[in-house]
Design brief:
By secondary structure, this protein is mainly β. It has a single domain, classed as Thrombin, subunit H (Beta Barrel), CATH 2.40.10.270. It has no helices and six strands. The chain has a six-stranded antiparallel barrel with strand order 1-2-3-6-5-4. The protein is globular. The mean pLDDT is 88.
Length: 113
């Protein structure tokens, strides 16, 4: 990822980190749930958006860049909740190899009608 190291004080967005898990349902089968990992400070930036269609209507796919302090427990498939919006982690990488910041590429899909 070609992001610059964020200046001190720019991690000003409060986000919740969640991990995907599956739980057994009483009727049989499994349900996918997201279990909270914690709440951290981050820098969230919208990058691109594109419009498309799915089976029941139109949708918008938005990509985001999320930078948090380095951690080893955040990986693709996890979710970042930012202002009530679900951002799915597509990739997570150490920004400069010094284990100071983690840069996450995220995607958000919204159905528009």
């Amino acid at each position: 990822m070609s992001e610059k190291i964020p200046p001190i004080g720019t991690l000003t967005d409060r986000v919740q980190l969640r991990r995907r898990d599956s739980v057994a349902e009483p009727e049989g089968g499994h349900a996918r749930v997201f279990v909270p990992l914690g709440t951290v400070w981050a820098r969230v930036r919208s990058l691109t958006g594109r419009q498309g269609s799915n089976a029941d209507g139109r949708m918008v796919a938005i990509s985001h860049s999320v930078v948090v302090r380095f951690r080893t427990d955040l990986r693709p498939g996890d979710r970042i909740v930012y202002r009530g919006r679900d951002l799915d982690v597509v990739s997570a990488a150490d920004m400069n190899g010094r284990r100071a910041y983690l840069s996450c590429a995220c995607s958000e899909t919204q159905v528009t009608g």
